[in-house]
Amino acid sequence: MILEVKNVRKVFPGVVSLDGVNFQVKSGEVHGLLGENGAGKSTLISILYGVYLPDSGDVFINGVKTEIKSPRHANKLGISLISQQFALVPTLTVRENLELAGVKLGEVERYSELLEIEIPLDRAVTQLTMGERQRVEVLKALAKNSEILLMDEPTALLSPREVDAFLTLVRKLADMGKAVVFVTHKIREVVRVADRITVLRRGRQVGEFRKPFDERELLEAMFQTAVVRSRREKTVAGDTVYRAENLVGERVFDSSVTVRSGEVVAVLGVAGNGQDELMELLSGFKRVRGGKIYLQGFDMSGKPYVEFLKRGVVYLPEDRSRALARELSVLDNFKVRCTTNCREKLREVIEILDIDVPDVRERAAALSGGNQQKLLLAREILLQKPTVLVASYPTRGLDMETTEKFYKIVRERCGAVVLSLQDVEEAIEKVDKIYVMSRGRITAHFTPPYDFDQVAEAMAA
Amino acid sequence: MRLIQRSKPASVYYVVAFLSSLATVLAAVYALTGGADAVRVFTNINLQMFLRVFAAVCVMGLASVFSYRSGVWNIGQEGQAVMGALAAIAAPDVITALALSAAVATGWIATPALLRVWLGVNEAVTTFLTFFIAVYIARYFVENPLRDLTKKGFIVSVEAPFLETYAALAIALLAAVGVVALYRARVGLYLRLLSSGEEVVKYAGKSPKLYTALALLLSGALAGVGGALEIMTREAGRYMTLQQVNTGFGLFGISASWLGGLNPLGVLAASLYIAWLYEVGINLKTVGMPALVANALVGSAMVWGLVGYVLYRYRVVWR
Amino acid sequence: MALETIASEALKSGVPILLATLGAIVGQRAGVLNLGLEGVVYLSAAVAAAVGPPWGFPVAIVVGVVYNLAYYTLANDFALNQILLGLAFTMVGYGVGSQIAQGKIGQPIEKYIIHGVEAYALAIAIALLVHFFFKTRLGIAVKASGDDPPSLDLMGVDVYTVRKLAGVVEGVLASAAGGYIILFYYGSWADSLPMGWGSLAVITAMVSLWTPTLAVGAALIPSTFVSLSYTLQHYLAISPHLLHTIPYIAPIIALTTARLLAKSARYQPPKWLAKPYVREERV
What we know:
The complex is a heterotrimer of chains A (about 450), B (about 325) and C (about 280). Chain A is of the alpha/beta class. Chain A is about 35% helix and about 25% strand. Helix content of chain C is about 70%, strand content about 0%. The mean pLDDT of chain C is about 90. At the B-C interface, strand 1, helix 5, helix 6, helix 11 and helix 13 of B face helix 4, helix 9, helix 12 and helix 13 of C.
């Protein structure tokens, strides 16, 4: 079986997500799809799975032009997907989810033995950790026994041992004659498992690479110009600006965080361990159930969010739509924090951050995701000088260049910074102190010089 | 078939929606009455009545804008209008009538608003149900406290004070300007933010509950004034009977708000069309159609308004 | 005596509310807040009146289902606002219904003789059927469609089809209610007779916390107060108009109480209630 797209193009408001991309996968091979955030990998997968219709370009199955009308249609054509966001209904049990997806439980068991993965069948998905959900998602897709498997970042939340077993299985599946598309931004994994690799960058196809792979060549293809990754410089930390003691929330227990003036601190952990809520608590966006928060010596415990705002605490939620009104104009969105001379100030920050805004009266939804993020940064960090910045996965979804810019601005503008991060490497490179979070508790903390393995191990524990 | 978001919203589809609605009305009336009557149904227009209906529809439309622009769902404008009209009947003069109608209607929507804000009770359902309650309450007032005892043998209420049509028009225009001005002010900014979700308002440092309640209360207040305007501008018969306490203007207003793209100026334009539809409805009655048929036509106009909103944002791909 | 009458009347008038409520539960569980149910009940009642027995009932169901399906197609495939589209469908239902049944005003329609207890027992059996429906694969898909349509879609189950199937079930139940109101309950037609029933069902579905077995009790709230308000007229010197408000006030109080008491996750509203699902708009 051969699945192929030719000259495919897909535009979303404010961004050309795919532009003239060709891609092909055959039975018996693993085709790696490599690129950084925003390169268009997920869009391509979504087109192959019938979620998006391409604006132009065609899909062929065994050389026959085919319109994949819906995910259901894709299933019928023998295509299944391991989704990055997990296609699982949280209110239903694992068993009900599998039943809905139309897979046989026997098949699920067979693959769970092969992969040495166990899943709880009778628990509601909402009670599972993110890691467990990913395992269910993987087994669900495999048990469909489709000819073509689309895998969108399938290893993101697996432990190192599970990743190993999974990659071995992927190889085995291809050897059994399945066609596999393996989407990732991790060069090491794709090199290990793929027969050929297509690299995407900002919606364009950079090239197709065959064995033997050269990791440096792939890296250059991903980033074009080698981005200079800055390293944390020795900072002179001042007095303690922010201190949270024994915070308690719904999924956060007994967590303490201290930040000194000039410091950038990261809370590191696998997704779904309570970091989102911890950030909400630290920023005052959500009221704590217990514990104390001191900001520049003032007791802020139990104060409403407005008080935190007044004292210069800035919160950046992971989901931008909680902070930006998509249906309102760029200018109106800016006015949420700006009271005077807003047009001029907006023009200024647009220039500084190089935001692509054709017209300030245009809806925010018309900007690309990256530009929305920049607009938010401009409003929250450039317009005011935050005393403390609390940010939930601020660099997720940003390309490398913008990520670099983010750290630079934050260091320049903010009195002190707490971020949640998932990438160990990024944390080690950029921050002055690392807290590790697991199951709602801070379980370890590290200061430079860091030991990668130590930190990674603390995360996995 | 699927919907794909446009990179730029296309206002032209509101015009398309309007024309489609017009075509629907023409076809339906022609089918119901046959050729000769149809022309009369469309063209027999009393300018005085047209203008006063326009004023009332306009205010009702603005009431709807307050609700829908904030993403909350008041669909009980009809009930609030009944309460407003009732207040007007009870008032001694025009000024009192206007103030009282706004106050009573605000009070009327306060229950759904507070239940929504405090307990998360769905406001669409409660505002809808409070319409039925309003009808019975009005009937009670017609029969008892506000009954006109001089009209022996008939159960009718006393008359509302008279308001000149031009004054009603002025009030409608003033209301439109007021809504535009409010939406430009900071309060208006927060009201509009609400449509993107409560969290966005909270993020801005304001209380989502407060603004949700405000949107509903403003919507109810204006609907009440709309109801008062409608009854006070009548040439004759500025009273309610047991059979006729409500007049369907709530639905007219909702339709005008969507055909007008939830934009105050758009509502002015759409109200002209809805006011004409009202005339068509009256003429239909004279050729023997049930009153509810006219409402059905306005209902179809509202559907076209909703279609306009979808096409404004999405393109339809038939594949 | 009075109490017995109230009970019997309440059961008789509870049947259509229970049927339409079960329909609304299926629809709302699928994520569709269909206020057009009022119009579906009205239109099917009008059809039943116009056709009369014996064919009135089945024809009413066919027409009601088609009408409800039209609503579901516009509200889901075309993503028109569910709430206001429902209002429009109610208005159009009133208009078309009053037109087709116009000839029956003031004429008696042959009525089937039924007993409150037996009729309600039958309706309870249907409630049990709906209860077990939610355990089938389609029933689970309906729940998923209201809680998380993007995931359901990615699993390879077409959300639009699932919702339309829910619309068919809802349509059958609601138009059965409409047919019953004329052919079993009133035995006559007037413009205002079938009004309000569908709306009460929409709110009763919420009062029942979207649970068919609880609906068996909740459906009796409005009907008890309806018959109570008629009976009280004979005994109390209160304006009948004020008494008529009770059947509408009671469900609001019941809904408020239900929201106060139901904290458990099982009883929360479907997360996507009244929100359209547009496949290309990923969150």
